[in-house]
Amino acid sequence: MNSFYTQEELLQIGFAHVGDNVFCSRKASFYSPENISIGHDVRIDDFCILSGCVLLGNNIHISAYTALYGSSFGIVVDDFATISGRCMLYAESDDYSGEYMTNPMVIKAARRPYGGKIKIGRHTIVGAGCVILPSVSLNEGACVGAMSLVTRNLDAWTINVGIPCCFKKNRKKNALKIEHRFYGSHDSCNKV
């Protein structure tokens, strides 16, 4: 048996959309697949979790043990993005102030979750072991170093590291030239 689902098996899972050339591990887990869209040329490795509203563009790799918790707010991952292993993306979180209770097994009236959409831009890289919190945008080409905590928006074509994640230096834009050479202009690419 192949370690990746076949195209027919992916369609049977009930995703909102599945593109061509999708390699999705049989060991990955999907919750509310009707709210998950997967573009073309996407690979999702072992032990990943995709839950809630998740929209994946084209030419994306999500490495092993990574979780995307989109809840109703959503996570959008745009074309050519890389999310390394053991990353956690949370579009919703509980209020940890102590004024409310936490966890999904507590009645809703006793909790006060908050959240917002996470946007992972084109040509972004999220290094291994990163955590991204609600309402964060990684703009085109932003790079996050391993083991970073992202609590705010990151500027385009920058390298950012740390807890909390901070600007380190600018990043080269050669990926755009390579994209144009092999995939054509950005305008002709399928958009998320």
Structural account:
The protein has 192 residues and is mainly beta. The chain has a single domain, classed as Hexapeptide repeat proteins (UDP N-Acetylglucosamine Acyltransferase, domain 1, 3 Solenoid), CATH 2.160.10.10. The chain is built from 2 helices and 20 strands. It has helices spanning 7-13, 174-183, and strands at residues 17-18, 22-24, 29-31, 36-38, 42-44, 49-56, 60-62, 67-77, 82-83, 88-90, 92-93, 114-115, 118-120, 125-126, 131-132, 137-138, 143-144, 149-150, 158-161, 166-170. Strands 1, 3, 4, 6, 8, 10, 13, 15, 16 and 18 form a 10-stranded parallel beta sheet that branches. Residues 188-192 have low confidence and may be disordered.
Keywords:
single chain; 192 residues; mainly beta; UDP N-Acetylglucosamine Acyltransferase, domain 1; eight-stranded mixed β-sheet; 2 helices; 20 strands; 35% strand; globular
Summary, kept brief:
This protein is mostly beta strands. The protein has helices at about 5-15, 175-185; strands spanning about 15-20, 20-25, 30, 35-40, 40-45, 50-55, 60, 65-75, 80-85, 90, 90-95, 115, 120, 125, 130, 135-140, 145, 150, 160, 165-170. The chain has one domain: UDP N-Acetylglucosamine Acyltransferase, domain 1 (3 Solenoid).
List the helices and strands and how they pair.
Blueprint: H1 7-13, E1 17-18, E2 22-24, E3 29-31, E4 36-38, E5 42-44, E6 49-56, E7 60-62, E8 67-77, E9 82-83, E10 88-90, E11 92-93, E12 114-115, E13 118-120, E14 125-126, E15 131-132, E16 137-138, E17 143-144, E18 149-150, E19 158-161, E20 166-170, H2 174-183
Parallel strand pairs: 1-4, 2-5, 3-6, 4-6, 5-7, 6-8, 7-9, 8-10, 8-13, 9-14, 10-15, 13-16, 14-17, 15-18, 17-19
Antiparallel strand pairs: 11-12, 19-20
